[in-house]
Amino acid sequence: MSTSTSGRSEEAPEELHGFVCELARRAGELQLSRYEDPGRVREKGPKDIVTEVDLLCEELLVGAIRERYPQDAILAEEGGGEVSETGRTWLLDPVDGTANFSRANPLFCACVSVVEGGAVTHAAVAAPRLGDLYHARLGGGAYRDSGGRTERLRVSETGRLEDCFVAADLSFAKRRKSPHAAGLEALFSACWQFRSLGSAGIRGAWLAAGYLDISVGTNSTPWDYATTALLVAEAGGRVTDLSGGPWSLSSQTLIATNGAVHEAVLERLGAGRY
Questions:
Q1: CA 204 → CA 69, 111, 217, distances in Å?
Q2: Which of 1, 158, 225, 235 fits as disulfide partner to 208, beta carbons 3.0 to 4.6 Å?
């Protein structure tokens, strides 16, 4: 792990947050300029693709961070990197929802977050085709900028699983082989409706906005789980791993909810193990 220390240590949190939001917006603008034109698409793993635009967006993000904060660590989906032990780390998903983007499905976004001392302190999710920017600062609330307006986000008040919208991005073939399969089946069966959006970043943002009640993550992807963790927490929700333990960058799974149904969700997941 890196032991870098960040530059501009005297910078106000608001100024840093503004830069986080600007970065996400700029990546979103680049995505939008190439909508329906993803360029070369290649498979980096089974059912895991990367487009030319993913790489261009990551280059844009990393370049801007390196210019402004040369001492900061960066962990990005495509280029990798590391998390600083003592300084500030940027987590980047240049195009979250790449499969959607490659087919001109509008549910894609750019995810940018900042981690210091093991805590996510800033997060931004730009969904350019939807015209939305979701952002949060630790202790400062969660917001959506859309159509020239800024609105504070608040999770839903849904109190029963049978009334919940639960969202996850799962391959049904892979789910059958997952150690969490039985618990997830128990959870999904207890909820009202299921949503699969193809973008973890949008899924977390929509939970923070109250459009969803539960979000399930079963892949270790800290660059888009980090935005969910902060947005949902700052909107009044709760985030843990699937066992109910605290979520961290090293967690393999994530459960985010409106808080009101969290214990019921964990009970269903636990019941499915036996």
A1: 27, 11, 10
A2: 235
